[in-house]
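Why show two proteins at once? Because comparison is the fastest way to build intuition. When a single record is shown, students tend to memorize it. When two are placed side by side, the eye starts asking what differs. So, the first record is below.
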Amino acid sequence: NNTLTMNFADSGAVMSLSAGNDSVLSVSFNENVMEYNQASGVGGVVSVNVGTNTTHTLIFDTNRIYHNRAASNGGVMALSMYSLSNRTITMINNDVWNNTAIDYGGVMESFIGVEAIQYVTLTYNTFRGNTAEIGGAVIYLIAPNGTFEVNMTGNTIRDSWSRTQSAMVAQSITTADFVANVWSNNTSPSLSANVWIKLQDGTQMNIRNETSQNNHGPAAWYVTGTGTGQVTVENATFSDVNTTYMLQMDSLSVVE
């Protein structure tokens, strides 16, 4: 029940976290107000860097997260992993409004530079009016060598804006479940899609009971992959009248 407001730092304006080798790090933010915090680099609220063989968990539960800003990546959180570790990010029942990253990840930017794994679970959050100038107005996940497992259930993602890739960009996905989320009035005016997903070889991706409506840009959803993979779409509603493609798939072996 804290109010964390108008803090300024180079990175992680509220909290900058680091962990040494062979350690365990667990941090929870519960029922706080986080607003108008600003980083001149990454992580408008929190930034995380960890050592080798580290297990770390970051939880946001029932917070109000408004008007935070990063001059680079991660308007709320910026997460970097350059060594063998496991990371779990969980967001439950948060209101996340009007956060900004000048580059990537208006809410979350995560980078994995080694053969490691990150678990991302987002449940019953409201993401509204978040922006990133380059990509990922809400979420930007990139892993040149590592992988992500993503589960999104019951979230509302609306009124996001990014110049090239709007609400979500996620690469190197090995497992993905999108269930009963609502994507509405998100805008990507330039080159790509409002939800842009790249799957690893052998990935199972499920899109169930999703609603995608009134999004703007070349495609509402774009899913691509390498090797074999399977995408299952069930009971989804796509009504994106201002896109060329509602659900565009490329380089996937199995689509149901």
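Second record. Ask yourself what differs from the first in the token line.
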Amino acid sequence: TITTCPSVLCEVSRTNRAKNSKTWESPFATANVTKTTTTDIVAPNGQNYGVIRLKATSTSQPRIEQSISLPSGKQDYSWSVYVKRDSSQNSPARYVGLSHFSFNGYNAIFDLEKGDIASQNADQSDYKAKIESCSNGWYRITLEVHFLPSGTNNIFKVHLSTFNNFAVGVINESVLCWGPQIEIGRGSTSYIPTNITNVTRLKDNLECTNTFRCKNSKATFYFDFTYYSQNGSYQQVFNIRNSSFSNSFILLTFQTG
């Protein structure tokens, strides 16, 4: 029996379209970097597995990338990866970039020393960069883009960068990477490990059919959620009901108004 519940994570169904995200093997490809797998670094999930070290061998676009087959039609995509400064090496990279090949305007550079966005393209109407601090020095960096896929050129990239150019790196600088994810929809959800095929996580359903009681005469409900789309005129996010609809506490989202 659960008597307290400080927080609950409920997520929509999503598919990680980055194949071999656990090992970074083919169809991932590298250019102007060495890629080595390390087992002496603890990943964000607490395990010593799946972390790679990328080390630049040239200043010209040192990177790892994967070409993805995407459905037709313009829609939202989220491209994310966990990164960490490689402090065990002599030249840990400070700047890491994310980009999408078909649309060079979709790129951003992240500062792993300050934990913020160093720079991004001036035209931000169709994309947004995010950085989230995780445990043990890891960051999750995300590039949200809204675009129409173009044939086979849907190549998502991780770059070793400089502070003002995502396509230029510094020789011998290195960074640690883990958990790449490409998903349809705005906003990255929790990491979905994959092998050679895509993996879909089903949506979460949270139901409590037992009697709900507050220990005190007053209570505060705090909701932290992101609104992405609307099906129908309105949707219920949360509903506490005392036997009838007239005695309810309901949080709704409306399509209009």
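One difference worth noting in the second protein: The mean pLDDT is 84.
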